Amino acid sequence: MKIYxxxxxxxxxxxxxxxxxxxxxxxxxxATIVGVEYSNRCSGIHWQDFDDIWLQRxxxxxNLDAHAKxxxxxxxxxxxxxxxxxxxxxxxxxxxxEGHPNLLTPPPSALKQVAxxxxxxxxxxxxRIPVYVSTELSDWDLHAFCRQNDWKVWLKGxxxxxxxxxxxxxxxxxxxxxxxxxxxxxxxxxxxxTGYEESVCFCAYRGELLGAVQMRKRDLTEMSKTWAGDVTxxxxxxxxxxxxxxKDLNWTGGAELEMVxxxxxxxxxxxxxxxxxxxxxxxTIAGYNLPGKLIEGVTGFKPQEILEVTEEFTRVVLEVPVxxxxxxxxxxxxxxxxIGHSLKHPSGLLGFANRLHAAEANGNGNGNGNGNxxxxxxxxxxxxxxxxxxxxxxxVQTPSFLFLEKTAAALFERAARLSKKSSTDDxxxxxxxxxxxxxxxxxxxxxxxxxxxxxxxxxxxxxxALQNGFKPEQIILNGPGKWWHREYLPKTAIHAVFCDSVAxxxxxxxxxxxxELKSKIAGVRLRTPNIxxxxxxxxxxxxxxxxxxxxxxxxxxxxxxxVHFHMASSNVGVxxxxxxxxxxxxxxxxxxxxxxxxxxxxxxxxxxxPDDWHEDxxxxxxxxxxxxxxxLPHVRQIVSEPGKALAQPSMALAMxxxxxQDFPGAATDxxxxxxxxxxxxxxFYPHRILHQNSETGAWKTLGxxxxxxLGRLCxxxxxxxxxxxxxxxxxxxxxxxxxxAGAYDRSMSYVFGRG
Length: 755
Ligand SMILES: *Cc1c(COP(=O)(O)O)cnc(C)c1O
What we know:
Layout: E1 2-6, H1 17-27, E2 32-37, E3 52-55, H2 64-76, E4 80-82, H3 86-95, H4 108-114, E5 127-128, E6 132-134, H5 139-148, E7 153-156, E8 162-164, H6 168-182, E9 188-191, E10 196-205, E11 208-220, E12 226-232, H7 236-249, E13 253-261, E14 267-273, H8 280-285, H9 290-299, E15 312-314, H10 341-344, H11 349-361, H12 382-389, E16 400-403, H13 405-422, E17 428-434, H14 441-449, E18 453-456, H15 459-467, E19 475-477, E20 494-499, H16 502-514, E21 519-525, H17 542-552, E22 560-564, H18 569-572, H19 574-595, E23 599-603, H20 610-614, H21 617-631, E24 637-640, H22 644-647, E25 651-662, E26 668-672, E27 689-692, E28 699-701, E29 703-710, E30 719-725, E31 735-738, H23 744-748
Parallel strand pairs: 1-2, 1-4, 2-3, 5-14, 17-18, 17-24, 18-19, 19-20, 20-21, 21-22, 22-23, 23-24, 26-29
Antiparallel strand pairs: 6-9, 7-8, 7-9, 10-11, 10-13, 11-12, 12-15, 13-14, 16-25, 25-26, 25-31, 27-28, 27-31, 29-30
Pyridoxal-5'-phosphate is lined by residues 434, 436-437, 455, 457, 478-479, 566, 568, 605-608, 641-645, 743.
């Protein structure tokens, strides 16, 4: 019996070859085991259970035709082949479309059904698949996916690699790296599921399930790979479903279903790998020798029994002698730049993936596209286009901010309608426009006209509000800097003041007593528990909580009492924000009970991404008000403080193309007269971009593509957009309009590089 085993990498993200060899040796001590590798850097070639090593050139240099012939020869001669390399298994699918009796890998039709991320083969198994999207979507939609999943997302490569990306710049950076490494834009983003990881590993021959075992990870490496685990029988219900899946797929070879069990016991399928896992010998130790069972299924030879079994296994690091005929290669040159991927796949798997891609694409261009098909993907609201069409661009000195008047007015009106609709006889729902987000007087006046309150973080902002029509009783004063330019504080009572710290509270109390500050409501801003913040009074230990309670008792009885909290849902995600909202309500219940003050005003702050605030806001608000009524029966007013939810869509930045430099087959560098000085939020969220055809005047949104928009500043990081699809007919002098620039892009833009 001669068995070929490939995939012998033994680093911290190991391949299963060595584990398979150990298990085969245990079952068939007399068998000849040949280790197959594509790099002499894979330390597994030195493992003692291999009787022989068949070392190939690395994948990117390998003569694939010759290798295919050689593999066919050993299979025809009776050798069995167990592959531990996903890409080799895919390649075998091409070489042996009808399979080979001695090739123990799944057929191409089955591989298609277990491809990431939609493992369609899971039907019938008691598992669900976490939500995911392809990164071929527009950046706008990808950012929305991340917010909706609380930024607990994984960016995954087509075969290997999964990185968690916690914010937009991390996402952009990793997408660029993975896309270049795997030469594809087809990555995907998947929602994280919190829980414990477990696997079901099985083996089958021609659609017949030969054996299965379940393993729970009990210790992990830094990369979340198994370091120790416990091994048990697969529950009957699961096995039944699995048997059917295996039959339907006509599976041959090993496989692993990687899953997470959430706190409710639900299993989520992350991946189905078409091979044995690297921990496979852990199963053998526990009495389930699946490689042995696989060979028995093919050959009919009885494996040797396992005498001593235990339910748990762990890993150790071992030193083994290097084979005399394979001396160690020299270490890579120190400046080879081989961080990350190339070190992880010493056998040139990345290069091989690229060769497979090229074959798949069939000479179909360079896979970089110009984004033509996707141009319409990023949806720009019709009112943007209408407003932009109204601009006389001949008079516009670019770069320049455009005020989208109709868009802005509609946003404020909608917000006002919504709050009116949500209000009830006993609870009034009100908006307060956050001045700092963009103090442009056109926006401040829209807020005033729509019946908003004004939310200010300094007396200077109070002053601007008063200048634009607001009355003192329509002002909410917030933030840590409310005593800066105190000479602008109004003489009559404002609506509410919120204290940002205990020190601030003492100062507010003093000012209220002397009459320097007059306010109908005085309250506190709570620091969010569990989510780090520099603002507000902390509440999450008994000591600080009792300090808070004592301080609240200092607030004059003449003022009503209110509570404010603020955490940007655009950063922490929508789900997490609502979770926080409920938890704050519970804290507020305790504050009422312990301080003896009832909460009449609840102010929930701002920080919403425009789309999140507007989407389903009716139903969300209704539910929120119900909750407030349940936990805080004395609340008479709920205030939200939208800033960017209203301001961000209200302005756009116009710029012109200065120069286009095409690198055929690679990138297109486009220099524009705008820069990150006008788009400081570039690093935090994507902007929808429009291009005007200079002949027809038609506007088009830019899809994904291979263009980089480089700012006019002579600064390395002045790149205002990456991977966008510029229309073929774009020319220097053409207009580009960056939408979604009306909030902090506008207010935080700085004068730079203008001479
Ligand atoms: C900045 C701020 C807001 C508005 O935040 P956005 O992110 O612009 O929506 C609301 N309330 C307070 C207290 C703020 O400081």
